[in-house]
Amino acid sequence: MRIWYPIALAASLIPALSGAQDGRVITLEGEAIPADIVRIAEGKASAEDGREFALDSLRAIIPPEAGGAEPPQAPFVRMVNGGVLEAPSAVLEGERVRFDHPVLGQVSLGIDSLHALALRAPAQESRFDKAIRSAPGGRQDDVLFLTDPEGGEPQEAEGLTESLSEGKVVFDRAGELADAARADLFGIVFAAPAAEGPPPARVVLAKGGTAAGEILGMDAAGLRLRLGPGAEVTARREDIRRIALNSPRLVFLSDLEPAAAGQEPIIAPERPAQMDRSAEGSLITVGGELFEKGIGVGSGSRLAFSLDPSQRFALFTAAIGIDDETGGKGDCEFTVWVDGQERLRQRCRGGDPARRIRVDVSGARQLELRVEAGEDLDLADHADWADASLVRAK
Question: Distance (Å, rounded) from C-alpha 133 to C-alpha 314?
Answer without folding.
Answer: 31
